[in-house]
Amino acid sequence: MKLPDHKHLVIDSKVSLTAYNEYVNAETEEARKLALSRHMDSVRKHIKELADKNYQSLHQLQSIDFVVHVRSHRSAFTAAIGNDAELWGSSTNGMYCW
Description:
The chain is of the alpha+beta class. It has three helices and five strands, in the order E-E-H-H-E-H-E-E. 18% of the residues are buried. The model is unreliable at 93-98 (pLDDT under 50).
């Protein structure tokens, strides 16, 4: 995305909802807990992978100094921050989660 002053914002919106779907459709409480744990692992992994891509250091772009991770699926996001409140506004290597 082009920003004022010839800056760029990279939007990387790929995200897996497989574990979240398993959580929502689980038939037992045990299966639900296990799926939620996998969902949380998936969210943390995705945040780390985005941070490791280091988009803000791409030479061909005048990128801003941070990356924003946006979870467009509200229920999946709510499940994630409901079980790890530190994800809300957390920062990893210039990577912010909202």
